Structures are given as structure tokens and as C-alpha cells.
Amino acid sequence: MVQASSVLSVGGLLIFGTLSSIASKVVYQTEGETFDGSVKDFKKPWASTALMFVAMVMCLPIAWIARLVETHKKKKSSDEQKPLLGKGDGDESTSRLAAKDATFKEVMILALPMFFDLTATLLMSIGLLYVTASVYQMLRGAEILFSAIFAVTFLKRPLNKLHYGGIAGCLAGICLVGASSLLSPGSGGSSQAGMVLLGMALIVVAQAVQAAQVTMEDYAMSHVGLAPLQVVGYEGLLGTLVLFLVLMPIVYFIPGKDGQGLHEDSLETAYMIGHSEPRWSIPLVLVANSLSLLLYNVAGMFVTEEMGAVSRTVFESARTLFVWLGDLLLYYTHTGLGEQWNNSSYLQAAGFAVLVVGTLVYAQGDRKQEGHDTDSHEGPLQTAKHEVQRAVFKFHHTISSHPQRSLRSRRWRRSVNAALATARLRPDEEDHHTPSS
Q: What transmembrane ranges does the database entry give (predicted)?
């Protein structure tokens, strides 16, 4: 049902996205025994990246299952003398996700976006060695800056005032978050501060690479007829082969210290996975991270499909907050994992708030560019507030568009109507202010 899938999609985006980011950092803080009997942290960014791409491969069987479901629906509909695709958003969503037979040429076209995805993931995995999960998640907001640059440079797409305001907000927020990380107690000393700065730089550079990946992926999608899940799955398959057959053997022989991102001993990695402290902690966290990443990608596709990219932007901002709260909760319930609250956290919170406002203002610029009504005299806080309210309305409209409304309570409707009144909207005006699902 429509409303059930929407609730599950948004919930999956928030829950599994949060778990994936936290688990990516926690595995670096989990200890394992080495060949000589010593115990050290499992700081293996190349192995973590490889497992992420293995998780992406799992999108292929999901796409094939969607194909079987679609085929069954078509057969049942044909038997009942109804249109082949039936009537309903659920059928359309299934059709968009279902697999088709991929040719070798189509798979090879995905090699270029896979290269960018692999590079960005590796840079972020190495950068995460030196920063907290919350800072890592917040710095990923820099992708907007590079997306805007590529849009102007390569796509010749003009930017409006809201875009520039959003870019300024994102840039200011990223600077505040970066400063808070450098001022945190754990980065004392010039050497440690230098590594923190390196980690943040790698994450920001990764966002530039990821923005390029989106551009390459758009190009690839226009030349292949594959479902989105298949694109993710085949990129994961190509990336897995490149990592295990080429890159990981190379970094094994590169001289350097293990755990800093350049050299990585794959034999020691396998040994530590089987000799973690406490036992099985490393494989459990790795599996949890891989499954969370897989489910997060699937949920994200459904959210974008049913509620639009702008609504997903709002929920992604909420996800960043949940990552931070989860990391704090983990620290105060399990000392040694997660991150603590300190004086620099206030600066980080301010940076996060500015970053969220900048992101939402930029999203409003996209709405204006697409021809939707916007108030050019609104301030950035009003613009951000209205974007949040639109996302809430879109979520409510999506889940209540089916006769069986599982969340149709008077309290919920009163709160939504109050939000709409604040935004100077009314339910009967939804077609003029909110894109249809």
C-alpha cells in the first residue's frame, strides 16, 4: 500500500542511514588481535570500502525480485482483463525498480561512474579515520557546492539568488564544523590537528568527486535502459572486482604504516576479523554496516520516487542530526565508542544549523528554477522553515492518499494544518505549491 511504503521508506532512510554512518566509524574503534598477539583498532578503510561495494551488489537480486513481482502483477492483471500495469502508485514504483536483461555494453558504460564512486568512497573512508561520524556526515554537505560548480561549468545551468544564498550558508556551516573539529580536545597537538585537517580535506574532496559521479551517472543513465537498483548493483559488482583483483593487492605491497589509509595488510585484516575483541564484534559491525547501507540505498530510492528529491534533502538533514545524537548516546552508554559532548560541540551545533539552512535554501532555489512559486522576499530562515513544512505536507499527503489511512488521527491532522497555515498554505492549494508525487 502507498502509505505503508512511504512510512517504511522514510523510516528506512533515517534508521538505516544513521546506522550505516555510525557503524562505519565504530568499526574503526573496534579492536582485534594481530598475528603477533597484540591488539589494535580495526582501521581498515580499504576493507570497509570493499564490503560497501559488496553490499551494493545485493541490489541486483532485489531488482530481479522486483521484476518477478511486476511480471506476476501483469499476469494477474491480464487474467482479470485489466490494463497490463494496473492502477496504482505501487505498480508504477515496482515497474521503475524492476530489472531487465543487461547487455555487456550497458554494464561497461557504468564503469566511469563506478570509478568516481569508488574514488569518493575510498577518500571518505580514509578521512573518517581522523574525524568523528557527525563531522564526517556534516562535511558531506559540501557536495552542494561542487554540484553547483558543475551545473554552471558543464551543464551551463544558471544559478538564482536562492542558490547563491544556499551556497554561502553551506560554505559558512562547513567552515564552522571544520573549526569545531580542530578545536576539539582529541585534536590537541600540531601533528594530531594536521591529521584531522587531512581527514576533513579528504572528505570535502570526495564530495567534489561524488558530484562528478552524479554527472557521469546522469550521462550513463541516458545511454542505458537499466532500473536504478540495477545501476547501483552493477556499479557495486564492477567496484568489487576492481578492489579485490587490483587495488587491494597493490596497497598490500605499498610500503607504509597500516591503518593510515595508504598501506593495508589484507591478510592481517582477515585474521583480525576472526580474532576480534570481544569475539565476533568486528564481523558483526561490518555486516551491520553493509546491510544498513544496502537498505538505506533502497529506502532512499523509494523516498525520491514517492516524495521527490527536495523532500529527501530535508530527511537527509534529519539523518545527520540522528547520526550525531546516536554517536553521543553510544559514547555515554559504552565508553570508548562514539563521541563525547565538549565545548567545541556548541560551535559544531551552530555550524550544523547554518548548514541545514543553507541546504534548504539551495533546495528552494531548485524549486524556483523548476517553475514552482516561491517568495523572493523571504529570509533564509523562513525559506528553510517552509521547505521543512512542505516536506511534512508531502509525507502526509503521500501516506493519506489511500483509503486505508493508518496515520489518520485528529492530532496529526491538526499539527499538519497548523504547519500549513504558518506557511500560508491550505490543503486545497497543494497542487499549486507542491509537486505531485
A: 47-66, 107-131, 137-155, 162-183, 195-215, 236-254, 280-302
